[in-house]
Fold:
Amino acid sequence: MKRIVFRAEDSLFPKVMLPGSQLVFYYLGGDDETVHVEETRVIDFEELLLRIDRGESVFITLKPKARGVVSHL
Structure:
């Protein structure tokens, strides 16, 4: 799997882009009632670590590729 790593000048942590892959991030708030779902191709480590530092839980998975729909008549 190819990856592209880049970092903004004002950021300590890199961002990693995974071309051809779609990631799904699930951020669970501290109260376990708040869920934020984000689909992206870029892993922003600064955002990821900030959310963990705030006590949120973070789950990351690959979004499955869409398959053709088969119709049985």
The radius of gyration is 16 Å. The chain is about 10% helix and 35% strand.
